[in-house]
Amino acid sequence: xxxxxxxxxxxxxxxxxxxxxxxxxxxxxxxxxxxxxxxxxxxxxxxxxxxxxxxxxxxxxxxxxxxxxxxxxxxxxxxxxxxxxxxxxxxxxxxxxxxxxxxxxx
Length: 106
Fold this sequence. Notes:
The chain is α+β, with helices and mostly antiparallel strands. It has a single domain, classed as Dimeric alpha+beta barrel (Alpha-Beta Plaits, 2-Layer Sandwich), CATH 3.30.70.1060. It has two helices and four strands. It has helices spanning 26-42, 67-74; strands spanning 12-20, 46-52, 57-64, 83-89. The protein has a four-stranded antiparallel beta sheet. Strand 2 and strand 3 form a beta hairpin. The radius of gyration is 17 Å and the shape is globular.
């Protein structure tokens, strides 16, 4: 009889695109927001986090079991009230961080 090991909920990768507006209070919330983002990166919930002030957009690659779970994580950010959020499940993710390190012969 085959025994299946339960590895918990299946994880997917999501691309989060955030458009934001800034006001006087926004910048005062950036330090606690960065603390939260750093926590999520350290917990491997966020793979990458980028921000453009030119376009007032941010892009985050996140791991989660559903779009609902990803949104619940995002809602805990101190900056959430400034955001318009779009979440897309990713099919292919590739890049240098996902590759094996190059061999360096001695």
